[in-house]
C-alpha cells in the first residue's frame, strides 16, 4: 500500500482517522481551556502548565498499570469507552466551584486510563491496514494531528473569548463524545488481540517481555532518547527568541509535516530501514549551529531542516511493529508512546537546567549534541536489528506471549 488512494479505500481507515482527529481536537481545545481556568483561579504558571500537560505525564503511570488493556480489550469498545469517559471527565472539570484538587484528581485518572487509547488506536491501525501500509497510515494520522493541534489552539482561544473557559471545556466534552460516536458507528467489531484480563501484573509481564528482546530494546531507545532530547531543545525556543518563538514553532511544525509526508508516501521499502539512523542524526545535527547564536532567518532554516528528521520515528515504529507479535502490537506501541512522553519531559527539564547555567543558545547546542551522541551509540545495534519485511518478524514470535491470566 503506497498511495493515499489505496489508503482511503480501506474501509475502516477513514473513521479511525476521524475519531483520532476528534480526540486530538478535544484534547487541544480542552487542555487550553483547562490551563486558562486553573490559572484564573490560582494565578500559578506551574499549575496551569500541569493542567495542560498533566495527562501526558500521567500516562507513564498508565504504562506501568493498565497498558495491557490496549490488546486485551476489543478495540472498538476501548476507543468508544475512552471517548465517553474523557467527555464525562471534561464536563466534570467544568462544574462551577469544583476544587482545584478535584480538577487534578480527574486529570490524573484520565491521564492514566488514556494510556490505553494510543495503544488501542495504533494496534487497530496495524489490523486495519496491511503490514506494508502501516507507515503510510501512521504518517497520515501524525499529519492530521499536527494540523488539528494548530487549528485547535486557534479555535480554542476564540472559544474561550466567546464562551469562557468553562464553556470551552463543555465544547471539548462534546468533541470527545463526537469522536466516541464516530468510533462506535464507523469501526467494525473485533475481538481483543490478546486473551486474558487487563491487570497490573499482565501489564508488567508484557512490558518486560517487550523489553527483553534486544532488537526491540534498541528500537525503543532510539524512539525515546534522541527524540526526547530534541524536544528539550525545542522547549528553549521561547527564551532563545521570545518575540519570534511562534515562527520557530511554526517552521518546526512545517518541517515535521514534510518529513512525515515524504517518509510515509515516497520512501521505497528498501530505503526505510537504512534511513532511520541518518534521520535521527538530521533531527539533532542542525541545532549544533545554535552554539553560534544564528540570526532568525538561518535559525528558521535550521529548525525546519531538523524537524523533518522526526520522520525517523515513523521508520522506527514500522520496525517495532515488524519485531512484535500482532497480539502484542497495541501494548508495544502504547509503551513507545508513554516512554516517548516521559523522555520528552526529561529532555525539557535537562535543557532548561542547562540554560539556567549557561544560555539558551548554548543549552540548545549541548542538548542537541547529547541527542546526536545517543544516536551514534545506538546505531550499531539498530543496524543489527534491521527487519526489511514481515518475515523478519518471525523470530520475535519465539518470545512466547504471556500466558492468559
User: Per DSSP, what share of the residues sits in E-state strands of 2 or more residues?
Assistant: under 5%
| Beta-strand segment tally | 0
What best-fitting shape do the alpha-carbon axes yield? globular
Radius of gyration: 21 Å
**What distance lies between the first and last C-alpha atoms, to the nearest angstrom?**
37 Å
How many helices in DSSP terms?
16
Structural class from helices and strands?
Answer: mainly alpha
Helix content: over 70%
Order of H and E elements? HHHHHHHHHHHHHHHH
Average pLDDT metric? 85
Largest sheet: none
Low-confidence stretches: 388-405
Task: Give a structural overview.
The chain has 405 residues and is mostly helical. It is 78% helix and 0% strand. The protein has helices at 4-9, 13-42, 45-65, 69-72, 75-93, 100-128, 134-186, 200-212, 214-234, 237-240, 245-265, 269-284, 296-307, 311-322, 329-357, 360-384. Helix 6 (100-128) crosses helix 15 (329-357), helix 7 crosses helix 11 (245-265) and helix 9 runs antiparallel to helix 16 (360-384). It is globular. Residues 388-405 have low confidence and may be disordered.
What's the gist of this structure?
The protein has 405 residues and is mainly α. It is 78% helix and 0% strand.
Chain-wise SSE layout:
Blueprint: H1 4-9, H2 13-42, H3 45-65, H4 69-72, H5 75-93, H6 100-128, H7 134-186, H8 200-212, H9 214-234, H10 237-240, H11 245-265, H12 269-284, H13 296-307, H14 311-322, H15 329-357, H16 360-384
Helix pairs in contact: 2-3, 2-6, 2-7, 3-6, 3-15, 5-6, 5-7, 6-15, 7-11, 7-14, 9-14, 9-15, 9-16, 11-13, 11-14, 12-14, 12-16, 15-16
Amino acid at each position: 500500500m503506497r498511495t493515499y488512494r489505496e489508503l482511503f479505500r480501506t474501509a475502516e481507515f477513514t473513521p479511525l482517522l476521524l475519531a483520532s482527529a476528534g480526540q486530538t481536537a478535544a484534547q487541544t481545545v480542552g487542555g487550553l481551556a483547562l490551563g486558562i481556568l486553573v490559572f484564573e483561579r490560582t494565578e500559578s504558571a506551574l499549575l496551569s502548565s500541569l493542567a495542560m500537560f498533566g495527562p501526558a505525564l500521567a500516562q507513564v503511570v498508565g504504562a506501568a498499570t493498565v497498558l495491557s488493556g490496549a490488546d486485551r480489550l476489543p478495540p472498538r469498545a476501548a476507543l468508544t469507552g475512552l471517548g465517553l469517559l474523557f467527555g464525562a471527565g471534561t464536563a466534570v472539570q467544568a462544574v462551577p466551584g469544583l476544587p482545584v484538587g478535584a480538577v487534578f484528581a480527574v486529570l490524573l485518572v484520565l491521564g492514566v486510563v488514556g494510556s490505553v487509547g494510543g495503544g488501542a488506536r495504533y494496534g487497530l491501525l496495524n489490523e486495519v491496514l496491511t503490514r506494508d501500509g502501516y507507515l503510510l497510515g501512521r504518517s497520515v494520522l501524525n499529519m492530521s494531528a499536527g494540523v488539528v493541534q494548530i487549528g485547535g489552539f486557534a479555535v480554542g482561544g476564540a472559544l474561550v473569548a466567546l464562551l469562557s473557559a468553562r464553556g470551552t471545556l463543555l465544547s471539548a466534552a462534546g468533541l470527545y463524545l463526537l469522536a466516541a460516536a464516530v468510533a462506535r458507528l464507523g469501526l467494525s467489531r473485533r475481538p481483543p488481540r490478546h486473551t486474558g484480563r487487563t491487570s497490573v501484573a499482565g501489564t508488567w509481564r508484557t512490558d518486560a517481555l517487550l523489553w527483553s528482546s534486544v532488537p526491540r530494546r534498541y528500537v525503543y531507545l532510539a524512539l525515546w532518547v534522541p527524540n526526547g532530547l530534541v524536544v528539550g531543545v525545542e522547549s528553549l525556543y521561547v527564551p532563545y527568541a521570545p518575540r519570534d518563538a511562534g515562527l520557530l514553532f511554526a517552521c518546526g511544525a512545517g518541517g515535521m509535516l514534510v518529513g512525515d509526508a515524504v517518509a510515509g508516501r515516497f520512501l521505497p521499502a528498501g530505503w526505510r530501514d537504512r534511513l532511520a539512523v541518518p534521520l535521527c542524526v538530521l533531527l539533532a545535527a542542525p541545532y549544533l549551529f545554535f552554539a553560534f547564536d544564528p540570526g532568525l532567518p538561518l535559525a528558521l532554516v535550521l529548525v525546519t531542516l531538523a524537524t523533518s528528521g522526526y520522520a525517523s520515528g515513523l521508520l522506527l515504529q514500522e520496525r517495532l511493529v515488524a519485531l512484535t507479535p500482532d497480539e502484542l502490537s497495541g501494548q508495544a506501541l502504547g509503551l513507545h508512546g508513554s516512554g516517548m512522553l516521559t523522555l520528552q519531559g526529561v529532555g525539557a527539564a535537562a535543557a532548561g537546567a542547562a540554560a539556567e547555567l549557561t544560555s539558551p543558545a548554548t543549552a540548545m547546542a549541548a542538548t542537541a549534541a547529547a541527542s546526536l551522541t545517543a544516536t551514534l551509540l545506538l546505531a550499531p545495534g539498530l543496524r543489527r536489528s534491521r527487519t526489511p519485511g514481515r518475515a523478519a518478524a518471525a523470530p520475535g514470535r519465539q518470545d512466547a506471549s504471556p500466558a492468559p491470566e
